[in-house]
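Internal tracking record. Fields below are filled automatically when a chain is submitted to the structure queue. Please do not edit lines marked as system-generated. If the sequence contains nonstandard residues, flag them in the REMARKS field before resubmitting.
Queue: standard
Priority: normal
Entity type: single polypeptide chain
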Amino acid sequence: METPFELNDTKGKFLSQGQMGMIRAALTSILSNAERVQESPGITPEQKGWLELIKKDTCGILRILRLAS
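SYSTEM-GENERATED OUTPUT FOLLOWS
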């Protein structure tokens, strides 16, 4: 199944710089929101752990995109 954000589509073309920018902006927003929510009162240790995983994965994806561009 193909998604609009395939890094390499069926025609062998890579994402445009605009598309990469949109993906980076979305991932940066996810990272920012996870950091903000993680510091909110009432967050359980388990929830903090999940948010930490989200942050690590998001940072990893951003690094991969940086290398790909």
